[in-house]
């Protein structure tokens, strides 16, 4: 009996201990968001990948928060045009040396004045390989970038980009390595915002409670996987245009759940209506939806470099012409995509409706002809690889069926664990088929849809996974970079686009659309480049 | 008894070392590159990726990587994720959520399951028994995410008496629905388990003797019959406690709760071996503790069981 008795006590003690820890630390009181009347708008985001350091944020979730906390030199307006934000003027004679005058009156949330030096310090930090920032390659146009990035294992000799100079507190001079017409567009990306001096004392700590120069300031710390709370910054120069008294970024791991919260009024803004909500969201949220083009493009790519069979442009065109893009967009994606007819997203200046023409239009007879003419595929077999982790199964299988039916070729949709696995298998020559691919812009310029995806450099440094090389395309890109005006640059980039449309290294399949919804608390709002324009948000 | 506990605790050490090494190897063997995974479909900048790989020792052979990890653990450093968040930080934020959710649903399944099973055994063949049988059958056959979504729709969206998701209303409001969902299947199993073992012990000789002695019915049922029928139930509960503490991937997703399950799933996906190993180690510890607790409970329930 003795043994049993003490066992009883041990068991009871353990149960009590477990119970006690469970009760402690509870009762995280609610922030009260979503309860109307307080002017605070709650927005769905996924957990940001990194701490909230602007130069280390290369994805939309963290970018959404940075956009509310910081103001950069340029921004997108409601018509997707690049306009000045903190910049008073941006001038250049040769697209190489840029003189940027700042609007006075901007301060960081800790009171520090924003000067040209605040930008220079931030960019030096972002470009330095020692800091291993995710957006590091975005700074590569600025002179002196290579000195800061000598390669792994080597220490940079300097920690300053030689191309940056503060002429005075409100004038910033930037020298680029080569002329680059898209520089002002690039400046609208959240990686190019200024940071205060305190950032450099403890960058990691800063990422948990960032101090910006934007319309909203942090309220407390970044509560991982739960919430990022902000309040309106009273000393923001455009504060009068901001109606929201604060923004609560609520972190969801599941958009379906967020949608339920939106319909029930517990959440105010959801930029991505999930598939489960697409059939009913117009009815669930009458008058409170936004449907517009988004910035990303979906393709099917061919490993030209790895597989000779794909080197014939007619073959690629035949495959492209056997895809019924309209059915894919409307039936498979329930309208959350539109058929692609250019390499450039419709929100970008320079997009031409129907630029792809015939090649992107279903034409079974012609596709069959072309296929025959091109010599066809070995064994009449085609594989389309996709990553099984991203919801691509349905549409890739639908495309595979269409090609199989229309061309009379045996087509298989082949799943891979991750996108990277497809690339590794291509490199290892374990896989020789085509693959799905998508591109979403870093900055709103035509150039960003061309160079990072199709240029020779992008084979090693970017997303040119097909290994496509065309010297004429390279020449036109370089020419566009030097163009004296934005309009002239667009014209030249369009010629480069035409080269692609003839060669079809990837075939454009669909454009993403933004299907967003907001609650009764928000009267109206606008979104550009997947970012909420806070000066357009009207609170009821 | 004391020696028994000490011996059991000593067994934990080799188990821990084995588990951390096996998990480390498994994560190492997963395809994909964790640094590229950070960049999604875009190609990670080769230079920055190389620097990050060197920083996290990803270019070194498996045994060196394990050595870096395990020597860090002995220095009290659990390591960090590939985006620089300390693992101790993640555990201290997420574990309380899992603990609260797990214990709430544990209490629910134990109390409701045992009560329902008892009732059903006592009213064998009657209406109430059939109600319990049908209800448990339903609970076992409904998938977790369906039950979760239905409860969200009914209680969160229509009646608006509980939050739909998140934990910002604190315990208990935010935890009730997910705990019910999480407890449902086990609750049904426990009810059926209690029913069958109670049915047996009610017919046993010692119960008949107790009744013949003139003991009050409540005492016969509660002390003699129930206590003796609990051994299989406690075994099941102990196993389930370990499972609950491991986080509930689906339930956490449906209710958007930042618990351990979601983190574990994400880290496996991103191939973050330090996180996976750290979390699994913690789970194994909890599992072993729960098992020890179960073994000790046997002696409480049945004095004939002794530990040498």
TrEMBL record, chain A:
Domain Solute-binding protein family, chain residue ranges per copy: 81-459
PROSITE patterns named among the record's database cross-references: PROKAR_LIPOPROTEIN
Source taxon at top rank: Bacteria
Keyword set includes Signal: yes
Signal peptide interval: 1-22
Stored Pfam families: SBP_bac_5
Record's protein name: ABC transporter substrate-binding protein
Naturally occurring in which organism (per UniProt): Streptomyces tropicalis
Record lineage: Bacteria, Bacillati, Actinomycetota, Actinomycetes, Kitasatosporales
UniProtKB/TrEMBL annotation, chain B:
TM spans (from-to): 12-30, 101-119, 131-155, 175-194, 229-250, 275-301
Membrane topology: Multi-pass membrane protein
One Pfam family in the UniProt entry: BPD_transp_1
Keyword set includes Transmembrane: yes
Record-annotated ABC transmembrane type-1 domain positions: 95-298
Gene3D superfamilies reported for this sequence: MetI-like (1.10.3720.10)
SUPFAM superfamilies cross-referenced by the UniProt entry: MetI-like
Claim: Cell cycle is one of the keywords in the record: no
InterPro entries assigned: BPD_transp_1_N (IPR045621), MetI-like (IPR000515), MetI-like_sf (IPR035906)
Ranges in a coiled coil: none
Keywords: Cell membrane, Membrane, Transmembrane, Transmembrane helix, Transport
Entry-linked CDD domains: TM_PBP2 (cd06261)
Subcellular location: Cell membrane
Family membership noted in the UniProt record: Belongs to the binding-protein-dependent transport system permease family.
Name under which the protein is recorded: ABC transporter permease
Organism: Streptomyces tropicalis
């Amino acid at each position: 009996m003795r043994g049993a008795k003490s066992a009883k006590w041990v068991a009871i003690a353990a149960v009590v201990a477990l119970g006690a820890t469970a009760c402690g630390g509870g009762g995280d009181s609610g922030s009260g968001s979503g309860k109307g009347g307080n002017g605070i708008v709650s927005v769905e985001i996924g957990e940001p990948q990194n701490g909230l350091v602007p130069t280390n944020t290369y994805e939309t979730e963290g970018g959404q928060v940075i956009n509310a906390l910081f103001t950069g030199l340029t921004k997108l307006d409601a018509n997707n045009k690049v306009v000045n934000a903190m910049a008073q003027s941006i001038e250049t004679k040769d697209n190489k040396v840029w003189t940027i005058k700042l609007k006075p009156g901007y301060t960081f949330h800790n009171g520090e004045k924003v000067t040209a030096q605040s930008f220079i310090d931030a960019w030096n930090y972002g470009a330095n390989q020692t800091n291993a920032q995710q957006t590091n390659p975005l700074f590569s146009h600025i002179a002196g970038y290579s000195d800061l990035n000598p390669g792994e294992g080597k220490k940079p000799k300097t920690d300053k980009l030689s191309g940056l100079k503060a002429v005075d507190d409100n004038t910033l001079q930037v020298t680029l390595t080569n002329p680059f017409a898209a520089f002002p567009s690039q400046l609208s990306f959240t990686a190019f915002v200024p940071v205060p001096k305190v950032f450099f004392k403890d960058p990691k700590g800063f990422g948990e409670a960032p101090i910006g120069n934007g319309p909203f300031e942090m309220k407390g710390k970044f509560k991982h996987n739960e919430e990022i709370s902000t309040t309106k910054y009273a000393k923001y120069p455009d504060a009068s245009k901001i109606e929201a008294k604060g923004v609560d970024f609520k972190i969801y791991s599941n958009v379906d759940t967020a949608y339920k919260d939106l319909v029930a009024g517990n959440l105010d803004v959801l930029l991505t209506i999930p598939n489960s909500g697409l059939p009913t969201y117009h009815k669930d949220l009458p008058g409170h939806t936004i449907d517009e083009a988004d910035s990303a493009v979906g393709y099917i790519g061919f490993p030209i470099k790895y597989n000779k069979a794909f080197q014939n442009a007619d073959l690629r065109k035949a495959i492209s012409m056997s895809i019924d893009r309209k059915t894919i967009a409307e039936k498979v994606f329930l309208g959350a995509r539109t058929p692609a007819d250019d390499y450039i997203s419709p929100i970008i200046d320079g997009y031409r409706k129907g630029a792809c023409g015939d090649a992107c239009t279903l034409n079974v007879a012609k596709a069959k002809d072309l296929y025959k003419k091109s010599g066809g595929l070995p064994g009449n077999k085609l594989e389309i690889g996709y990553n099984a982790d991203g919801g691509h199964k349905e549409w890739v299988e639908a495309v595979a069926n269409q090609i199989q039916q229309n061309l009379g070729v045996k087509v298989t949709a082949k799943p891979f664990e991750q996108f990277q696995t497809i690339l590794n298998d291509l490199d290892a020559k374990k896989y020789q088929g085509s693959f799905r691919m998508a591109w979403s812009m870093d900055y709103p310029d035509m150039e960003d849809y061309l160079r990072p995806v199709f240029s020779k450099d992008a084979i090693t440094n970017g997303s040119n996974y097909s290994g496509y090389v065309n010297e004429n395309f390279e020449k036109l890109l370089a020419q566009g970079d030097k163009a004296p005006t934005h309009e002239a640059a667009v014209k030249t980039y369009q010629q480069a686009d035409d080269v692609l449309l003839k060669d079809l290294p990837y075939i454009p399949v669909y454009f993403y659309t933004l299907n967003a919804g907001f609650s009764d608390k928000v009267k109206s709002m606008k979104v550009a480049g997947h970012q909420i324009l806070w000066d357009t948000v009207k609170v009821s | 008894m004391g020696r028994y506990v000490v011996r059991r605790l000593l067994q934990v050490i080799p188990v821990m070392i084995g588990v951390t090494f096996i998990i480390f190897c498994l994560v190492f063997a997963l395809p994909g590159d964790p640094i590229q995974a950070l960049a999604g479909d875009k190609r990670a900048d080769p230079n920055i990726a190389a620097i990050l790989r060197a920083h996290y020792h990803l270019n070194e052979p498996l045994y060196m990587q394990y050595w870096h990890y395990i020597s860090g653990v002995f220095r009290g450093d659990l390591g960090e994720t590939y985006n620089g968040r300390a693992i101790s930080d993640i555990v201290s934020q997420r574990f309380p959520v899992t603990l609260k959710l797990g214990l709430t649903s544990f209490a629910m399944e134990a109390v409701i399951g045992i009560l329902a099973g008892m009732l059903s055994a006592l009213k064998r063949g009657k209406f109430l028994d059939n109600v319990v049988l049908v209800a448990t059958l339903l609970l076992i056959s409904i998938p977790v995410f369906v039950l979760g979504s239905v409860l969200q729709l009914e209680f969160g969206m229509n009646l608006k008496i509980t939050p739909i998701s998140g934990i910002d209303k604190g315990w208990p409001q935010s935890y009730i629905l997910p705990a019910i969902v999480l407890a449902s299947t086990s609750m049904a199993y426990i009810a059926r388990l209690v029913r069958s073992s109670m049915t047996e012990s009610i017919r046993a000789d010692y119960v008949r003797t107790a009744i013949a002695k003139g003991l009050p019915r409540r005492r016969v049922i509660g002390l003699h019959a129930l206590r003796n029928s609990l051994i299989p139930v406690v075994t099941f509960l102990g196993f389930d406690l370990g499972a609950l503490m491991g986080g509930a991937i689906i339930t956490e997703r449906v209710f958007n709760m930042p618990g351990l399950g979601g983190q574990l799933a994400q880290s496996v996906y991103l191939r973050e071996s330090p996180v996976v190993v750290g979390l699994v180690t913690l789970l194994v510890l909890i599992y072993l503790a729960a098992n020890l607790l179960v073994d000790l409970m046997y002696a409480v329930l049945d004095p004939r069981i002794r530990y040498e």
